[in-house]
Amino acid sequence: MNRFFLLVFAAGCLATAPHLAAAQAGGFPVQTTSRTQFVMLDGEVVRREGTQTTPLTQNVKLAGGVKINYKNGIVEMPADKINPQGKKITLHEGDYVKPDGGVVFATPASAAAARGEGTPPTTPPGTKFEPYVQHGPGFSDPAMQVSLLNKKIELLNQKIQVLSQGQPTKPDTKAIDDQLKQLDAQLNGPK
């Protein structure tokens, strides 16, 4: 009888082994909504949908490749042009990760720690701060990128129209060129 229970226990352990290894290797993909947040509360990451919180039982991986360790709050950002090796930050109490992988810090101290800076000077109690959002290395909102690219296409079409009017002297396109430089800076600058 003891051998039977031992055999069932061993089979159960083997059946769950790949599942546990996958959780440690990088988390499981999760479905999110625009209201989903992964918040560090009481030393662990929980999932918050609006006002309802649910404890996590495994590490998660967001659609953009951001991985969140639910036990220690380490967030792994995927590699990109700015950080070819990726980037890791640790969430502090109240910090949360948005569904797009952006991190919102609860205090200036946690934001400074994520940037690798020393602790900022203490602030008086009751001081209000605007949320500091870090979208990870090289993050760019796709809707914003599309909007900027559409604006660039419009400006280039305007420039083509001005240049193709057949005027004997070269038309002045300085205003359009300046706007194109600003758009290029927004498109190619650090995100």
From TrEMBL:
Residues 1-21 form the signal peptide. Residues 38-102 form the DUF6799 domain. Keywords: Signal. InterPro entries: DUF6799. Pfam families: DUF6799. This is DUF6799 domain-containing protein.
